């Protein structure tokens, strides 16, 4: 089995609360096995430029509780080119980096797969607030981000109640409605609009008029950014015009990506970081570490990426060719499980918002 002397850790794509907890876990686990750790700054950009420094045990002290990422993050188009990849591989050789733990989203995992194919074994940790990695029940940062949304919506509700208004709130999540759906339930939203389900505006207008007639003064509508940046502002105008309830629009944006990670994300990031290093040292690579039904497990990155496509209904010709019938069945079951969960949550939200 390959003997590791030194590994690298990087954070890439959109940052997420809990990335620091993962960096700490990776660093301390590797060092506990007698392996050195190099911090690679600015994601794949730092790998191309050689922006790399050692991480010792004390270098990762007091970061577990902080949002953002001490290694900084970047989106690096150059890494997708042969030239960029060659530079990254050369940097690994120059710094004697035998393997990399890459913390980020699906783009980061694609990069990790390419790097593994070029001889640098990589393992991915799902770090993104969006929860759009289907293979894991939760991504690092998702739970914290949702709690931030809830805190902010609770504040909006106070002022909506005072002024008898409706707030339409747009939340991040890229193409995934997970943040909007769960925070909509947690804040008692009157309606939740997400890309996964067709949204009936007329039903919403009726509901608002009806509840207003019964004395309800405050209304919250949560919209996922996946519906497009014009959708929520437009809906705000339509609600006011159709129902006569004064309506305000709020886009939470990046504020939801910052802040200290909560207990759930700290514990999950710590477990995932430790697990990833153990997998790497066992000789495994091209994996994404996932949380499934409470357990920390690993999934092949190629499997995870195709599973995402299947869930999003974006499979292309030939995508499933590399997988066995058993793997395809397991993907289908996973997709059904996630869809059933989303449907059940959507129905709960609808039933309780009167
Ligand atoms: P995320 O990891 O959050 O999905 P991005 O999609 O921006 O964020 O990806 C992060 C980085 O991963 C990109 O800037 C790029 O360096 C690398 N990357 C993304 N897609 C690919 C790809 N298809 N091949 C190789 N590297 C990629
Ligand atoms: O992937 C995390 C995320 O915050 C998405 O929710 C959002 O669509 C996107 O990143 C914003 O990207 P940027 O930080 O480049 O503005």
Description:
The protein is α/β, with parallel strands linked by helices and 354 residues long. The chain folds into two domains: 6-141 and 261-314, Rossmann fold (3-Layer(aba) Sandwich), CATH 3.40.50; 148-257 and 340-352, 3-Layer(aba) Sandwich (Rossmann fold), CATH 3.40.50. 45% of the residues lie in helices and 17% in strands. It is built from eleven helices and eleven strands. The chain has helices at 19-32, 43-49, 82-94, 106-117, 142-163, 178-186, 201-213, 231-243, 263-281, 301-311, 325-352, and strands at 6-11, 36-40, 52-54, 99-104, 122-126, 165-171, 191-193, 219-224, 246-251, 287-292, 295-300. The strands form two sheets. The chain has a seven-stranded mixed β-sheet, with helices on both faces. A four-stranded parallel β-sheet has the order 7-8-6-9, sandwiched between helices. The protein starts with 5 loop residues before the first strand and ends with a helix. The site of 6-O-phosphono-beta-D-fructofuranose has 10 residues, from loops.
């Amino acid at each position: 089995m390959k003997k590791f002397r030194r590994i690298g850790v990087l954070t890439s794509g959109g940052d997420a609360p809990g990335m620091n907890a993962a960096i700490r876990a990776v660093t301390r686990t590797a060092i506990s096995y007698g392996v050195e750790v190099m911090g690679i700054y600015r994601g794949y950009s730092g790998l191309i430029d050689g922006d790399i420094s050692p991480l010792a045990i004390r270098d990762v002290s007091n970061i577990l509780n902080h949002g953002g990422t001490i290694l900084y993050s970047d989106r690096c188009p150059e890494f997708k080119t042969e030239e960029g990849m060659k530079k990254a591989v050369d940097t690994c050789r120059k710094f004697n980096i035998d393997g990399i733990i890459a913390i980020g989203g699906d783009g980061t995992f694609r990069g990790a797969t390419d790097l593994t194919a070029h001889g640098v074994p990589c393992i991915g940790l799902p770090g993104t607030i969006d929860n759009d990695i289907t293979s894991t029940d939760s991504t690092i940062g998702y739970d914290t981000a949702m709690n931030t949304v809830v805190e902010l919506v609770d504040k909006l509700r106070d002022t909506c109640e005072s002024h008898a208004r409706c707030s339409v709130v747009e939340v991040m999540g890229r193409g995934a409605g997970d943040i909007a759906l769960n925070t909509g339930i947690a804040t008692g939203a009157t309606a939740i609009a997400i890309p996964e389900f067709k949204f009936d505006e007329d039903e919403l207008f009726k509901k608002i008029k009806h509840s207003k007639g019964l004395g309800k003064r405050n209304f919250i509508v949560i919209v996922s950014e996946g519906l497009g940046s014009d959708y929520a502002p437009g809906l705000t105008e339509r609600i006011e015009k159709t129902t006569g309830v004064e309506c305000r629009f709020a886009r939470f944006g990046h504020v939801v990506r910052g802040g200290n990670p909560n207990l759930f994300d700290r514990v999950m990031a710590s477990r995932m970081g430790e697990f990833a290093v153990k997998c790497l040292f066992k000789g495994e690579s091209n994996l994404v570490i996932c949380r499934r039904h409470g357990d920390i497990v690993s999934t092949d990155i190629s499997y995870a990426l195709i599973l995402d496509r299947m869930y999003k209904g974006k499979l292309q010709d030939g995508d499933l060719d590399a997988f066995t019938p058993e793997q395809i069945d397991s993907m289908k079951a996973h997709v059904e499980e996630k869809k059933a969960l989303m449907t059940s949550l959507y129905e709960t939200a609808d039933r309780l918002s009167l």
